[in-house]
Amino acid sequence: MAKAMVMINCPETGRPVATGISMERASFAPSILNNQVLYNCPVCGRDHFWSKEDAFLEEEQSSGLK
How many domains does the chain have? Predict the structure, then answer.
């Protein structure tokens, strides 16, 4: 199975940002991703705290958002 990048939307800009975590789609639903931190967001430069409720998987045929 192919892995997909776990993404969040930057709370400052709303733009999607890669978290640096990748996983198989089947593993995402049961995963525990609580109290995660994205350091130095590449979009706005700030640190963001996030949890699984904030996350989504990047489309496998991405448009280059990483």
Answer: 1
Give the whole-angstrom CA distance, residue 45 versus residue 2.
30
What span, in angstroms and rounded, lies between the C-alpha atoms of 34 and 63?
27
pLDDT in tens, 13-52: 999 999 999 999 889 888 888 888 888 999 999 999 998 8
Q: Is 36 within 8 Å of 50 (Cβ atoms)?
A: yes
Q: In sequence order, what DSSP letters do the residues of 40-64 get, joined into one string?
A: S-TTTS--EEE-GGGEEEPPSS--S
The verdict on residue 47 lying in a domain is yes
Q: Are 22 and 3 in contact (CB under 8 A)?
A: yes
Report DSSP state, residue 2.
Answer: -
Range of the domain at 42: 3-57
